Amino acid sequence: MVLKLDRRLAQEAARAALDEDLGSGDVTTLAVVPEGVDTRGIIHSKEEGVLAGVEVAREVFAAVDERLRFCALKQDGEKLLPGDIIAEVQGEARSILQGERVALNFLQRLSGIATLTARCVERVKNCPVRIVDTRKTTPGLRALEKYAVRAGGGFNHRFGLYDAVLIKDNHIKMAGGITEAVKRARQNVSPLLKVEVEVETLEQLEEALAAGADVIMLDNMPVPLLREAVAKAKGKGVLLEASGGITEENLEAVASTGVDFISLGMLTHSARALDISLDLERVKK
Description:
This protein is an alpha/beta fold and 285 residues long. It has 11 helices and 12 strands. The two termini are 43 Å apart. The model has no long low-confidence stretch (mean pLDDT 97).
């Protein structure tokens, strides 16, 4: 999988986070640290995981002070061990200190997502299933968090409400049923867009199949019911997605049912930040 992060998005995220953190200025650093002190910052991992967010960290320090020199020693998607040096940043101490927390926040958050994703992908490696994310992301950080999922070996579901049709329970209620909802979607959106329908029962599954859904989300179904659903849909040219109530503990059982995708909101809403630190050392001139 080729990893590519839009630099413009990284720059915008870095600037917004710095505006939030710096405000009118870093009063502690400006008061305590003399101007003109040259230093090197060593960014390192304190635990095992998968890296994501290096280029965002680079943009943070560049936004603080374009004279800072940032050198990445690890790339996004690489595995980390305790003590691994991720990057070095060199230049004026005041500038590095002003960008330290924001850069680490991005690295810790995104690496946490990548690490959890990689763990889930590893659990289902023997099954022909893809782990995908959801829209349950931090407001304003969706593109970065979905990028982190890719860094961990997962795949992206739709990015927003604009790039795919996903008919959920409340849509079905308002439309008057699955059949009518799918019919209206076919009439009103581009034929290039896939139409996915969320179902909770085998009866709803049969209706969605008859209505011609391209993808069917099997929501909160226990493993035995998932197996029945897969059997009913076999050979009918529809993709099946399992979602809801899925944890790391039951992930392999869900994958073994034969579904095509497993969507996990926890990848982005519940990932624990990876422990990453920055240590400064004074540079002798």
